[in-house]
TrEMBL record:
Keywords: Apoptosis, Phagocytosis, SH3-binding
Identification of the protein by name: ELMO3 isoform 2
InterPro entries assigned to the protein according to its UniProt record, in alphabetical order: ARM-like, ARM-type_fold, ELMO_ARM, ELMO_dom, ELMO_domain-containing, PH-like_dom_sf, PH_domain
Disordered, as annotated region: 1-35
Domain ELMO: 359-531
Amino acid sequence: MARSRSRPRVRDTEVRSRKGRTSSSPGAPGQVRPWPQVHGLQKVQAPMPGWTMAPPRNVVKIAIQMRDAIPQLIQLDQAKPLAAVLKEVCDAWSLTHSERYALQFADGHRRYITENNRVEIKNGSILCLSTAPDLEAEQLLGGLQSDSREGRREALRRLVPLASDMTFAREVISRNGLQRLGTIIEDGDDLGEVLALSLRAFSELMEHGVVSWETLSIPFVRKVVCYVNMNLMDASVPPLALGLLESVTLSSPALGQLVKSEVPLDRLLVHLQVMNQQLQTKAMALLTALLQGASPVERKHMLDYLWQRNLRQFIYKNIIHSAAPMGDEMAHHLYVLQALMLGLLEPRMRTPLDPYSQEQREQLQVLRQAAFEVEGESSGAGLSADRRRSLCAREFRKLGFSNSNPAQDLERVPPGLLALDNMLYFSRNAPSAYSRFVLENSSREDKHECPFARGSIQLTVLLCELLRVGEPCSETAQDFSPMFFGQDQSFHELFCVGIQLLNKTWKEMRATQEDFDKVMQVVREQLARTLALKPTSLELFRTKVNALSYGEVLRLRQTERLHQEGTLAPPILELREKLKPELMGLIRQQRLLRLCEGTLFRKISSRRRQDKLWFCCLSPNHKLLQYGDMEEGASPPTLESLPEQLPVADMRALLTGKDCPHVREKGSGKQNKDLYELAFSISYDRGEEEAYLNFIAPSKREFYLWTDGLSALLGSPMGSEQTRLDLEQLLTMETKLRLLELENVPIPERPPPVPPPPTNFNFCYDCSIAEP
């Protein structure tokens, strides 16, 4: 019987004949005869000629390695118990006591394979035979009690990579491994590699959640705090200690308060200023954890103190603009810090204006006086109280409030008092822009005035939604805005840019009060698109958002709509390119038919009087242009009645606009400019001279149709605007018709790659054989 030289032994596989019978060995009926083994590799018996081999179910082809042994290539039956598989593997290597061994993935974290995760074994997986997790845990924990420092270090080096595996971690924890590691950490006899490995292993074991962080003792936490507060020679210890304290703070409120009281903010600032990315990331992680665990009042005090110590400037210069790329973890912590900063605005956003608050009423008067100070003083002097109240109500209306009593507008939450804060900030920090905005719009009488107060209230709501003010922090988000760390009062500064953008967009849209919601939708889109670009400074944000005009927004919307319809996907573009020649031929045919129908033109005299008519058309065989004069109101003439003819073969070129001889060297008045846009001429040979047939089209559409038709006769491309529009319309219709059957089917941008051929073709399966 022929044998394959490259196929490993297949276990528990039945070879079936065409009648479905099992080929059995001389042993028990129905058993599969084992094939011989050569050099540790198990050989696969090739099927007899005329036989077929059914693909086994729940069987994967894998390799198993062991140190100082030739690897085994086997087919693993996933339905067989793992203990039985281990027994066969150990027998192949003549190993006894298979219960002392376990299988691990050879790559990655070298996780132990159990009945729960064995489904992750795929074809081509490489496994290794190693010591069982219970024996490995017992051996390593024994090494931790060694009197030799080198012995403890070696045990920890082997423990750390295995600690991330749940199976191994349970064995270590069940044997009091956490207590042994905690003792090493608390003793602190070795502040170098042994301590670093102990902290890493302890953290990895705790991350599995088998033991709660709240069970940690206060002396243990204080000892880890000491490693954060002291200056250690080993740079690997502080990041590990900071990471452990972050987990403690996030998981246990009581121990988090202990960490907050024991770790000064100044110490975290010292760690942040060290040019070590890992240390900076862990220090920022503990800082955000402490801020999240603090009350709103404590959080405000902490952030104010950190800002006084120039944390914002340091983050902006040395972390955001660092030469080294920022890691995902640091980006997440900066996002959390930004969210906590913006969260300080939530109380003002949730608080409506109190009409009985003297302070808030005075703030409204300050806002009014900043806009109408001169007018108010001159017109309000010597007026009665009623007259003065009426004047104030009118000025509040001019300021853009919907009600004469502005308190009614600011009772809405959100934005509540945050909108008033923004308007006051704008009036105080940009007084000229504020006055110009209000006076420019309050003096307009054409219903196109942009309401400052109403726009400010809605813009504040819009900014709170875009920046997610008051929303809880995501556990994975990284989308922070670098410009928020570029300067103080970033939210109010962003409002100042936004309110001026609102006025600019309002004028571009020529909006009225009825268009207020439409304008706010455009402003929202402008701000959202610019924020998505993550500008690094407010000035860059201002430049980019002002460049995003209303016209540009419309263009982007159109482009995105086409993308959503799939018309700009590479396969669709390729289809459109293939359709273009056919459709251009259709347009050419339509243009020539239009020339055959003919058109009535007016003659232009030397005094620019359009008092004569003439008719021109193309002959049905497309060889002659026939034309002649006709009277106004007469029916279209027949071809035989047209006296003049111009052979197409004699035509040399098509001229348009100012190049035409009948409009050249004329004045530049408005009437002449209109004629330029409708004028075209045909130059042709008349004997030895060059002559011209001049036209003035009755409309722009006729101009396009005739110039396209004449270009087609001359063999030139049809480049008119009408041709472009017609081609786009035909392409869109034809593409949609071609794709009707693919509705709601995603079209990939690239065709799927053709897989490489198999290394051999030693497989055959007869699908006509029915399984018993």
